[in-house]
Amino acid sequence: MFEATASAPVNIATLKYWGKRDVNLNLPTNSSISVTLAQDDLRATTTARASSEFAKDELYLNDTLEPLGKRTLQVLAELRALRAEIEQKDPSAPKIADLKLQIVSVNNFPTAAGLASSAAGFAALVKSISLLYKLPHNDSELSVLARQGSGSACRSMFGGYVAWEMGSETNGLDSRAVQIADVNHWPNMKALILVVCAEKKDVSSTSGMQITVETSGLFTERVNTLVPELFVKMKKAILDRDFGSFAKYTMVDSNQFHAVCLDSYPPIFYMNDVSKSAVRAIHELNDQYKEPIAAYTFDAGPNCVVYYLEENEEAVLSHLGQAVSNVNGFPVEKMGSTPASTSTPKWA
Ligand code: ADP
Ligand code: DP6
Ligand code: CO
């Protein structure tokens, strides 16, 4: 039996990926930017085992057997092909490429609830198997594989501030993650996760974005105009540690992303009334300070991620605590108040 374990943290996009130009290779319609959360907070931990005793490939997610989707099978096939090359070149390397795999993964946060479980999940899957297979590839090369499992997963291959460059090649080899800056670049950045609802969403990200691409007129404006401008501006705001601009662009993008969801037919609602109360509360707070000291963003789900600087923690927490915690009787759980980024993910 051969075995390796790896974990990968969640990343939360501040400029969202939403839309595929190639569904088979998982190539996006736009470049995106995210912040990787700390490894100790929201993460997926995956153990990959290869053994002649396994009759078929299996994936257990949070103790339940998960059907192997087309994209998972594709990622496994690519990883195996890379291992087979090693075995061909080096006859002394153990022959494990053809052995069946047992993959066991656990998320320490809600799965499929809009907190990027597919990102942490596929990054951890690719890392654990590349360790098992002793692949020599660097994180950017592995991000191309993780992308094929779930687009957002390519960005979880790095800590800190990360861009997924959409690329232009049809084979997808240049559609990969690159680090904009590491965690130490902006050490007082923090992220707060407000778990509004931990249940599985009705519309997965994969199907939601497909509905948007096929039906939303506003989506063309998003992809052709708004996102390319924000990509350049947001990268600069991060490099300049300009929180006011970073916060504004993050909120503008989150709002625009949810607007194209609403503009889809049938419309997709990811945010609920509690999510909206968090938006209102943060604008109220920023108005009080006459500049943004906190930024909300919502992925494909109702849960809110708030970015802020450490020196404003008390103001942000106390304002949100009062404004959001009991809105409409919904419990809002504070899941983590973490440094928003982490060092390069640990390889177990
Ligand atoms: P999220 O907003 O949580 O990323 P998605 O709809 O994008 O939700 O993806 C959820 C799906 O990702 C799950 O149903 C599962 O198929 C896959 N997934 C989540 N966590 C893992 C994991 N740790 N390992 C493998 N696949 C995972
Ligand atoms: C709103 O990466 O989950 O979180 O590639 O189909 O697996 P698939 O989609 P996924 O979509 C993420 C959408 C998002 C924005 C983002 O993370 O950039
Ligand atoms: Co996802």
UniProtKB/TrEMBL annotation:
Domain Mvd1 C-terminal: 191-348
Protein name: Diphosphomevalonate decarboxylase
Top-level EC class: lyase
Similarity-based family: Belongs to the diphosphomevalonate decarboxylase family.
Keyword annotations: ATP-binding, Lipid biosynthesis, Lipid metabolism, Lyase, Nucleotide-binding, Steroid biosynthesis, Steroid metabolism, Sterol biosynthesis, Sterol metabolism
GO biological process: isopentenyl diphosphate biosynthetic process, mevalonate pathway; sterol biosynthetic process
Record domain Diphosphomevalonate decarboxylase-like N-terminal: where: 8-176
InterPro entries: GHMP_kinase_C_sf (IPR036554), Mev_decarb (IPR005935), Mev_diP_decarb (IPR029765), MVD-like_N (IPR053859), Mvd1_C (IPR041431), Ribosomal_Su5_D2-typ_SF (IPR020568), Ribsml_uS5_D2-typ_fold_subgr (IPR014721)
Pfam families referenced in this protein's UniProt entry, alphabetically: MDD_C, MVD-like_N
Organism of derivation: Starmerella bacillaris (Yeast)
